[in-house]
Amino acid sequence: MDNVLVAGGAGYIGSHACKAVSNAGFTPVCFDNLSTGWEDAVKFGPFEQGDLLDRARIDEVIAKHKPIAIMHFAALSQVGESMDDPGLYWRTNVLGSLNLIEAAVDAHINKFIFSSTCATYGDQDNVVLDEDSVQQPINAYGASKRAVENILYDFERRFGLRHVIFRYFNVAGADPEGEVGEFHQPETHLIPLMLDAIDGKRDALTIYGTDYETPDGTCVRDYVHVCDLVDAHLLGMQWLTDGRPSAVFNLGTGSGFSVRDVVDHSKSVTNKEVPIIEGARRAGDCTQLVSGSSKAEAELGWKPTRSNLKSMIGDAWRWHQTGHYSK
Ligand code: UDP
To answer: N vs C: which end of the chain shows fewer Cβ within 10 Å?
Structure first.
């Protein structure tokens, strides 16, 4: 069975990707430093603990497992934290990625799938975001991901490194079979924090800003189910295997939901109220991030089937009640 190196495979999205890679008939080799990931989440293939800032360790793992492709999820991804500590984001996300990209080139691996973000677009109110939209990140997280995209363009030009870049919108939900799910410590994301507030693990959900220029004053996001999202990565790998050119795809459904929409919808899923505090805006948050592109559907054949609030909140709620990691 061919191996696929999954950097960040012990994290939220990476662990779901490992399951999808395994279901597709490959062996996912999880490379993770466990800074935000969980060893308990490594269930579908071998685990190689290591840090992307340690180039020798990357080379060692690649030499041992000889992967045919690399999926790169290993990054820090919190907008607020990136504003507090931009150096951490530039070092971890950019230098770490550069090491992995250089290791891929040196090992003649030319299928590289990179997790980027809609945060590279920045705050463009009421603009339909497609892959050609101008990229003006307003936080260090988005800027660090944009920098890695630029590294990939340069390495394609110089070394022929073929790649697919996915710009994620807001990833949510969990494996419907409950094998893996979202578990961050500390948690900063809307849906898991809302579920914590619903079942009393925290006093309330703070809504970060109710004075945005949106219909109900709260930020609008395009939520994608994590299983739909990782399906696109398998299609991206096939795209490169078929000899198609490097490409960038938005992964969003084009439906925008406000923070209040998400909160309101949760009642029909959980039958419980969400205790709420209306708080101040969070630094770095864009007003609205919604994909205006169906390129992934049209060109990759991506068919998101679970990216509706009912499935995303329902799968997250099931995981929230039963699943967790301890180490
Ligand atoms: N949000 C919120 N309260 C929270 C966490 C998030 O109001 O406790 C809002 C946040 O301002 C954003 C949306 O929920 O508009 C999604 O935030 P999240 O951190 O989940 O993802 P991001 O959009 O930052 O990638």
So the answer is: C
Residue whose tokens read 């809302």: 194
Distance (Å, whole) CA 231 – CA 304: 8
pLDDT at position 90 over 90? yes
ipTM score of the complex? Answer: 0.98
pTM as predicted: 0.97
Determine whether 2 is exposed, middle or buried from the number of CB atoms within 10 Å of its CB (0-12, 13-18, 19+).
Answer: exposed
The residue contributing the CA closest to ligand 1 atom 14 is: 190
**208 is annotated as an active-site residue:** no
Indicate whether 16 pLDDT > 90. yes
Answer whether 282 contacts ligand 1 (Cβ < 6 A): yes
Q: Is the Cβ atom of 285 under 6 angstroms away from ligand 1?
A: yes
Question: Is 287 close to ligand 1, i.e. is its CB under 6 Å away?
Answer: no
Domains, the chain, in order of start with CATH, read 3-172+223-251 (3.40.50.720), 190-220+254-322 (3.90.25.10)
